[in-house]
Amino acid sequence: MDVFHSMQVFVSVIETGSFTKAAQALHLHRPAVSKTIQLLEQQLGGRLLNRTTRQVNLTPEGEAFYERCKTILADVSETMSSLGNRPARLIGKLRVDMPVSLAKLLIIPALMDFQRRYPGIELTIGASDKPIDMLSEGVDCVVRMGELEDSSLIASSIGHLPMLTCAAPSYLENFGTPQTLADLEMHRAVNYFSGNNPRPIEWVFTVDGHVKAMRLESGIRVNDTEAFVASALAGFGLLQGLEISVRSHLHDGSLVQVLREFEVPAKRVSILYPHRELLPPKVEVFIEWLKALMATHHLV
């Protein structure tokens, strides 16, 4: 029995919460994961897990073994990183999921630089504004904007994107230009909702050093960033969005910034990945490259 491999499988079962997700994360068949745990328990002479149809729980012996495994695996990973030939290990497939606007307007235009630096890494970029299950879809890391939901993933903040409020000239001709936040009660918005939750994301402004949240009546609701901007261009309502998403439209006059005196807090950008201790080198260098890209554009 490969003890090191068995430890990796055991830790993955605990951290993903199921045999099925562990198998997907490790690219193994589920029966192979079950067999590995059974052999490990036989070797140790005791039960490590209590299994039900819905969850996997550690026994007291399993909890102690889990803590030891994490320490051992982390030590081995650190040793390999310090002694191994790092450039030679930067090979293989790297799958990253990110928001559409960030992918098209910031990351992909610069991505050839990453490929030149790390030619052995084969990139697969998923551009989507909908939440995904990293483990079941085989994604190595995800880039996300805004406040993050609680999860078991490790999150690292990599920068902030400026936000602003704007509208199409046609909308302003029909409804007037708001001058104060109180004026927004008389206006309609292009509202954005995320995932399966139809409740629009709140509008936010910084007032006297404090964040003021509010909701505007919807002229239209969308859950796609390209449809979001297109709806504003069509005159459906005011839009509060990323400066990078509307920059070209502000330059050509098809959108006009409003409420300049009322600052919109910048949108935080984070990168998420499953494990800190066993972070693959290919993921580590992508995170480092992305942080440098954000710094180059003064977005940290």
UniProtKB/TrEMBL annotation:
InterPro entries from the UniProt entry: LysR-type_TF_proteobact-type, LysR_HTH_N, LysR_subst-bd, WH-like_DNA-bd_sf, WH_DNA-bd_sf
GO biological process, one term: DNA-templated transcription
CDD domains per the UniProt record, alphabetical: PBP2_CrgA_like_3 (cd08472)
Keyword Cell inner membrane: no
Keyword Transport in record: no
PROSITE patterns according to UniProt: HTH_LYSR (PS50931)
GO MF, one annotated term: DNA-binding transcription factor activity
HTH lysR-type domain span: 1-59
Source organism, top-level taxon: Bacteria
Xref: Pfam families: HTH_1, LysR_substrate
This protein's UniProt keywords: DNA-binding, Transcription, Transcription regulation
Family listed: Belongs to the LysR transcriptional regulatory family.
The protein's name in its UniProt record: Transcriptional regulator, LysR family
Species in which this protein is naturally found: Pseudomonas syringae
